[in-house]
């Protein structure tokens, strides 16, 4: 481990926390002055006027925090930072471009509304930009009994994963603190993984995003709507987080990041299992009922848990705890089981949980 990079990564995290903590109250002030609130309808579980522009802070704070770190270190002629920048410049440049595209579309959706067709175009465009960065999900490390697939197939799968994960994070954003909490857990896992395998630039970016999300989580979960201190991330936030999570997941699988002999695919996708498996179940259910797979409803895992009588705070804590436990369990199982058996175990566990929730659902 590099002490220099450890201090740098922790510094980026602290700077992002401070900037985000300062910026979000300003966004709240503007939102209330301009009356930019989340619409209340039959699906929503919140009461009162709550702005949904919290995601506006994500991209600017991340870029500012990372840029400040790189600038300060380069002032002191750090050859180590310069070397990392040169080797990863192409990847970082295209990642930034992809994030800007998805961020702007999410912002437009929060302000004036964007149809799903427009969102899909933005998501596919962002996926293509990530491909241009050199990102490609060509290595499966035994998942579905595959090792390496041709580039064209990996490229198609990469763009598919962008659309899939971005929408999975967007769909899970239905309870205070759930999407931001699960994203924070994932960014922490990715940041630690990148740091342990020596990919320090990506570790810094992951911790910058984590630092940005932490203050938002506070205002989203503990903020009082009556005191005008509560905020939602909106599509700006969920789409941006989803794209970054997809990039990190595929990047880990691409570089074959191995920490203590854990299968890289476990490190890459275990943090995203819950939102990804939930969106599959929800979409299949909507199609079976003859509806649109993109029409919002109340069939997500958090809705099913609340239907048993649990409060949204308890639901949020339970799902986040389940996510952490599942990640740790997957890591331990990867030492003794084939990755396909781990995936099967996760799916059976998820099916069992949904069966129990359906049985105990209040009529």
Structural class: mainly alpha
Distance between the termini: 55 Å
Please give the oligomerization state of what you see. single chain
Instruction: Report the strand count.
Output: 0
CA radius of gyration: 20 Å
Percent of residues in helices? over 70%
Are there runs of 5+ residues with pLDDT below 50, and where?
A: none
Name the average pLDDT.
89
Strand content: under 5%
Biggest sheet statistics:
none
What string, H for helix and E for strand, traces the elements in order?
HHHHHHHHHHHHH
Q: What would the principal axes of the Cα set say about the shape?
A: globular
The total count of helices amounts to 13
Description:
The protein is mainly α and 363 residues long. It has a domain at 3-256. The protein has helices at 3-34, 58-75, 79-111, 116-132, 151-172, 178-196, 200-222, 234-255, 264-269, 273-288, 301-306, 312-333, 339-359.
Output the keywords.
single chain; about 375 residues; mainly alpha; 13 helices
SSE topology:
Blueprint: H1 3-34, H2 58-75, H3 79-111, H4 116-132, H5 151-172, H6 178-196, H7 200-222, H8 234-255, H9 264-269, H10 273-288, H11 301-306, H12 312-333, H13 339-359
């Amino acid at each position: 481990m590099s002490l220099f990079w450890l201090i740098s990564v922790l510094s980026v995290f602290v700077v992002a926390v401070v900037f985000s903590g300062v910026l979000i109250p300003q966004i709240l002030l503007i939102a209330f002055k301009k009356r930019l609130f989340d619409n209340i309808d039959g699906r929503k579980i919140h009461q009162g006027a709550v702005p949904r522009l919290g995601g506006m802070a994500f991209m600017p704070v991340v870029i500012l925090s990372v840029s400040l770190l790189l600038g300060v270190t380069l002032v002191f002629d750090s050859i180590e930072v310069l070397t990392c920048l040169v080797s990863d410049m192409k990847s970082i440049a295209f990642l930034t471009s992809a994030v800007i595209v998805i961020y702007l579309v999410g912002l437009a959706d929060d302000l004036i509304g964007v149809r799903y067709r427009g969102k899909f175009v933005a998501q596919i465009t962002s996926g293509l930009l990530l491909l241009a960065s050199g990102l490609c999900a060509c290595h499966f490390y035994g998942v579905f009994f595959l090792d390496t697939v041709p580039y064209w197939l990996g490229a198609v799968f990469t763009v598919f994963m962008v659309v899939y994960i971005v929408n999975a994070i967007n769909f899970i954003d239905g309870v205070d603190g759930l999407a931001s909490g699960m994203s924070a857990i994932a960014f922490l896992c990715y940041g630690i993984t990148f740091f342990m395998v020596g990919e320090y630039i990506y570790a810094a970016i992951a911790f910058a995003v984590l630092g940005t999300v932490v203050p938002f989580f506070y205002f989203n979960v503990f903020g009082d709507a009556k005191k005008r201190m509560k905020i939602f991330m909106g599509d700006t936030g969920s789409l941006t987080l989803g794209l970054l999570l997809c990039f990190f997941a595929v990047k880990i699988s691409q570089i074959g990041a191995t920490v203590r002999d854990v299968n890289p695919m476990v490190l890459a996708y275990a943090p995203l299992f819950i939102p990804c498996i939930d969106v599959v179940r929800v979409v299949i259910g909507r199609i079976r009922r003859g509806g649109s797979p993109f029409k919002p409803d109340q069939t997500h895992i958090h809705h099913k848990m609340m239907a048993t009588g649990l409060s949204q705070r308890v639901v949020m804590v339970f799902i986040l705890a389940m996510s952490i436990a599942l990640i740790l369990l997957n890591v331990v199982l990867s030492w003794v089981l084939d990755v396909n058996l781990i995936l099967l175990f996760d799916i059976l566990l998820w099916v069992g949980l949904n069966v129990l929730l359906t049985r105990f659902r209040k009529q």
